[in-house]
Write a structure and sequence with these properties.
The structure is a homodimer of 216-residue chains.
Chain A: H1 3-10, H2 14-22, E1 30-31, E2 37-38, H3 41-56, H4 61-72, H5 78-88, H6 100-116, H7 119-124, H8 129-143, H9 150-172, H10 177-211
Antiparallel strand pairs in A: 1-2
Helix pairs in contact in A: 3-10, 4-5, 5-10, 6-8, 6-9, 9-10
Chain lengths: 216, 216
């Protein structure tokens, strides 16, 4: 398809598509003439992914490019490829260095991973942005006087494991390795607000059940 | 306790405490002399909450003040009070108006709430920021070609209901209504990064199990 059709089908303006091309977020189309190129379904899919990252995920352009480099790297095994792409995504704050609360939090997180037998996470711990964000978040809770030990974290971790099964089931519906990796990135980024808003709605329901006017 | 001790115990500088007092985020202490005031445990707890909101939750000062107004309003029932405080928290983007994807998303969300018997959420729907964020997120997923219908959302909603039971159990550990409401706000804000990072770690474990080098 030509640029105009790519724009029509994706809902992205030709100006924006040209910007993405210049920023190497989108691979070039197959050149037909000096001024025209042909684009395929893979461009449409990639465009959606770029849009998800930049518009919805609010990922900076340079970071989006890193994520896409990992997505495109078919020399990596499926698992490593998804990991590289997801690790490139923006994540929470880093834990404060040389800080007793951070050290205590790291001990609790390590004990949690051991208890759950999350061996992969234990193996890659310091390299994983999610591990570091978790340590940072646990340290923040503790500094503020809210308990966040293995006992408190375990139910949330087990529930997260259930979420992960559903997430991976969704990812596995896609036929090719490239589409699986794109889906993994999209679902990680796009389902975060779904999850957080469902949690708030569920809390409102549970609160109504326990404390509301008609609570038994 | 005097200002110096409040600063010592909370880890917040006296300058910042004075700022919070000026901004009416912290109620004044009991005045002893023209220049000195006495603070109690409730100030220490409130200071932690302000810190959680502003430093960790990155909530703007004006919004923090709205949240705290709801927290302090003991004329409201427990459930309404928690609701008012949590609704004042920052939430995701609003859905686009007059947009077919938004309308379709709203229909799916309404069908989901009906299926789950989340009657409270159905009753307050348009008023609830979480409801609007969910509609916005579902619309974004759909526009990007990722299915997000009742079938896809249901497992995430049921899992969120489990999370809510744990969240409310934690909140109920606190003895007074004021402390329960403060805990509800803190836990909503502070556990979000815990949940999102646990989900990413769990996804890495599940991905390793299915696709990793030693996958069966």
């Amino acid at each position: 398809m030509r640029l105009a059709e790519l724009s029509e089908r994706s809902g992205v303006s030709t100006t924006t598509i040209k910007y993405y091309l210049r920023e190497r977020l989108l691979p070039p189309g197959r050149r037909i003439t000096a001024t025209q190129a042909e684009y395929g379904e893979e461009h449409l899919r990639r465009l959606r992914l770029v849009r998800a990252l930049i518009q919805v995920g609010r990922v900076p352009v340079a970071t989006a490019r890193e994520v896409l480099t990992a997505v495109e790297d078919d020399s990596l095994g499926q698992h490593t490829r998804i990991g590289a792409a997801v690790w490139a995504l923006p994540h929470g704050p880093e834990p404060a260095a040389d800080d007793p609360a951070t050290e205590a939090a790291q001990r609790e997180v390590d004990r949690l991973l051991q208890k759950l037998d999350w061996d992969f996470s234990r193996a890659v711990a310091g390299l994983s942005p999610a591990y570091r964000t978790l340590v940072s978040a646990v340290a923040a809770l503790t500094r503020l006087g809210y308990p966040c030990d293995v006992e408190h974290l375990t139910p949330y971790a087990r529930i997260s494991a259930q979420l992960a099964v559903h997430d991976l089931d969704l990812i596995e519906e896609y036929p090719t390795p490239l589409e699986k990796v794109e889906a993994a990135v999209m679902l990680t980024v796009l389902y975060e607000p779904v999850l957080l808003s469902l949690r708030r709605l569920a809390e409102a329901e549970e609160s109504n059940r326990r404390f509301g006017e008609n609570a038994k």
